[in-house]
Amino acid sequence: MGTKRDFATPSEFRLACRKGRFQEQTSGICPGFVQANVMALPKALAFDFMLFCSRNPEACPLIEVTDPGNPTPPTLAKSADLRKDVSMYRVYVDGQLNLSTVLDAETYWRPDLVTFLLGCSFSFEDALAAAGIPVRHIEEGVNVPMYITNRQCKPSGPFKGPLVVSMRPMTSAQALQAVKVTSRHRLSHGAPVHLGNPAEIGIKNIDEPDFGDKVTIKEGEIPVFWACGVTTQLALMNANPELAITHAPGHMFISDVTSEELCLR
Amino acid sequence: MGTKRDFATPSEFRLACRKGRFQEQTSGICPGFVQANVMALPKALAFDFMLFCSRNPEACPLIEVTDPGNPTPPTLAKSADLRKDVSMYRVYVDGQLNLSTVLDAETYWRPDLVTFLLGCSFSFEDALAAAGIPVRHIEEGVNVPMYITNRQCKPSGPFKGPLVVSMRPMTSAQALQAVKVTSRHRLSHGAPVHLGNPAEIGIKNIDEPDFGDKVTIKEGEIPVFWACGVTTQLALMNANPELAITHAPGHMFISDVTSEELCLR
Questions:
Q1: Each residue's pLDDT tens digit in chain A (265 positions)?
Q2: Among B213, B152, B225, which Cα is nearest to B182's?
Q3: Could you tell me the CA-to-CA distances from B146 to A216, B211, B226 in Å, in that order?
Q4: Is the pTM for the entire model greater than 0.80?
Q5: Do B262 and B76 form a contact (C-beta atoms < 8 A)?
Q6: Residues of A in contact with B156 (CB under 8 A)
Q7: Which residue of A47, A67, A114 is in closest CB contact with B46?
Q8: Which residue of chain A comes nearest to B117, CA vs CA?
């Protein structure tokens, strides 16, 4: 699409987002660095949401939480501004998606917002590729396909809803390797939650993802599914908060921390 | 000391606590099962405390959090009552240790109490022993020695304070093995935080622990230090909550989950 997708550092990438020069999804950007889901909520709901994350660690691996009103994640990126450094935001009002393509969330910010940063499977795609495992959506230049499953998360207060998964197709042999590679990346969703028959987790049509884009599944490949942070956005809509600011699915925050460093936390 | 220390199951152990028949520390009890720190706090403080745990995961590995008022930990032990099933409790009022040897906490319970269960290094002592590593305090029939260090935890709201560590003496070769064994046990404090010279972490006299008992350090052995859940009790005293109920140091809650199962969470 012509947009620059090579950045020397995560901070250069974040500056491009801040200036509105980069508005795309982030799979394949700054390989080897941690990408994160962003969820800013009023402090009154913060405990219930944090407990939801704690009870559903595969879908909601908690990397960092800011103090109320503070837009900087202290260990992930000291120079970052979480109100501006994501390529595209969503704003929810009274639990409904109010604005889906916000480039700068500063207008909507409040001093009582607590921001949660949750791990993302984009963080281990570099490690998958290094192990010779295909990452089809990067090969095809699209967003990862994401699906709503029939598995329910454990609820916490008003937060409840189904597990959402991302999918990468590969051979069975590659899937075994992928389990080994990604088990280490616990804070980026870790090992897959399912592989093989999509119907077993309630996915009716693998060619019609609920979020992101369809990718090619080649002859001899099976779909492999990882828990996905978009799970939190469905739980959010059930909780009806008066305000929530999140990244748009696939448009992740990119930190200064490497995925290898995150494996050691 | 004559008290029965062999129990067929954790639930048999918990029943003995509930009936006041077991009032001792729990190192070596129900080997292979997860032991946990207990911290019950009013819900108004729950988010700040949970954030303290999230920011200090080595000292405060969060295994499970109950809903307000609910005395049962849903995944750790469905039959348990956290108000009664610990061998000895402490009750803090206005941040001060008010009662240090409470056998049944039901009298002090409130419907707004949220109970946090944090991992404990007692959970991996069975794995250490299986790897041929001495667990001196079990050999000597005493509580593990615990020390206040000069390392400060990352604060959250009113919760702040120094890191507390537990110590086990062993040879350098055994220490290397111990790092390998315990790294897997992330939710039981994981790998050591220090080994060797106690002064480097602010411990003046290894023979005078701040909590628990002194143990013998043999010729050729070095002290090896793990982060300890007692860290939370010092943070608690700084936070001055109107009420908090915890286990007494070393008197842990014992769950129905094995340490191996916890490694897979």
A1: 467 889 999 999 999 999 999 999 999 999 999 999 999 999 999 999 999 999 999 999 999 999 999 999 999 999 999 999 999 999 999 988 888 889 999 999 999 999 999 999 999 999 999 999 999 999 999 999 999 999 999 999 999 999 999 999 999 999 999 999 999 999 999 999 999 999 999 999 999 999 999 999 999 999 999 999 999 999 999 999 999 999 999 999 999 999 999 998 8
A2: B225
A3: 57, 5, 9
A4: yes
A5: no
A6: 67
A7: A47
A8: A54
